[in-house]
Each structure stands twice: as C-alpha cells, then as structure tokens.
Amino acid sequence: MTLPTTSGPAILRAEHLGRIVNSKILLEDATFEVRVGEILAIIGPSGSGKSSLLRLLNRLDEPTSGTVYLEGTDYRQIVPRELRRKLGMVTQRAFLFPGTVASNLRFGPAQRGETLSDDSVEKLLEQVGLKGYASRDVANLSGGEAQRVSVARTLANSPFLLLLDEPTSALDDASKQGVEHLIQNIVRHQNLTCVLVTHDVAQASRLAQRALFLQSGRIVRAGPIDEVLNA
User: Fold this and answer.
1) Angstrom distances, CA of residue 168 to CA of 4, 56, 176
2) Rounded CA gap, 180 and 183, in Å?
3) Which residues constitute the domain of residue 80?
C-alpha cells in the first residue's frame, strides 16, 4: 500500500522494500514516502515488522528486495556511516558511552574530524532541556535525562531525519511527556522530519500527522493519523 501524496517534498521514499530471513517474511513490499517536517508513525501489533522497517531505513539491516531513496538518491550509493548520520536513530533505551554528557555529544562529530565547541554543546543541551549538564557523568542521569542526551547526541550529527524506535517505552509517565514535548519542539523549530515506531496508539495520535499500520510484515492501512487509527 502507498501513502497518499501530501503537500511538501518527500525527503525519503521507500519502494517495494522487503526483508526475508530464513524464509521468514519480516517485511514485504513496503512503499511509502516521508515528507519534510512531518512525523510519520509506524504502528501495529507486536511482531508486525515495525522495528524491522525502521532498521531497513538506515541499513542496520539490509533489504532483500526494494530500496530507499534519500532526497532522490538510492541509499545503496551512500556510505553506511554517512547514511546513519543523515538518518539518526534514537532507540528505546539510551545507550550512552561512559563519561560526561559533553563527551557523548562530541563523539559523532569527532568521527568526521570535527570538534564540537563548548558553545555548541551547550546549545544542543538547551534544545533538549538540559542546560548546564555538559560536565555531568552519564552514570548519574535519570532515564528521562539519558534519553534527552541520546536525542542531543543524535542532533549533534546534523541529521536530515530522526528515526525514533519506541523512544519513551522505558520511561515513566512524567519523563514520557517530557520527551514527547521535546520531539514536537525539535520538529517544529528545526523543521526536522521523524519516523516514529510506537506501540502506543495514543502517543501516535498526539505526535504524528500520518501513519502506517503494519500487520504480518505488510502495510495494511496508510494515511492521515485519524483515518488509520479509526479504520
């Protein structure tokens, strides 16, 4: 199934994307677009292929059929490390490196030979509501704070698009609300684009404009969020 066209250019397009492992279909014939500045939710029951789809978008897993175009370029022509910088992923749990918050934010740019200044670190932390946290040890952060650092570390790589894999599922309700507001603010103020995998239908309704509903590895419904959720 293909999502209906919406206004604004497509930053990413998947065409007939699929992955089969040991004769098991993880994803089959997924065709859809992600438009600049939107949040697209991927929803569906457990085991429906949501996370498999997300991992295919930045080649953490390789498709066995189809491909993805990023700004019109077949992503197989993009070096995987550069692709993953452009399509930054935030996972369920914040996997931070031992050390300070600042050292975590500087890691990605350092891999490209860039040094993130103290001012740049502070600006990133302000964006995620953690002003003054640069020198803190990540071992002393709460779950919500660690997830915010994970988002800031992803933003430090100047991504085109954020891939969010159940980003609040490991958080308490207060931290969950904070991260949701953070996602909304980042999209709104930076004109960033997000693909959000979530099992939380209410969260999808709060955050997303459009949705894909997956079942048994196939997109069975696609369109505006209210239509998909109420079908």
Assistant:
1) 28, 21, 5
2) 5
3) 10-96+157-230
What is the pTM for the complete model shown? 0.90
Contacts of 182 (CB under 8 A, 6+ apart): 128, 129, 148, 151
Is residue 54 within 8 A of residue 46, CB to CB? The reply is no
Residue 5: per-residue pLDDT:
38
d(CA 101, CA 97): 9
Integer Cα distance of 143 and 94 in angstroms: 8
Mean pLDDT in runs of 10 for the chain (231 residues)? Answer: 53 97 96 95 94 95 97 95 93 91 95 93 94 96 93 93 92 90 87 92 95 96 94 77
The number of domains in the chain is 1
User: Could you tell me if residue 116 is inside a domain?
Assistant: no
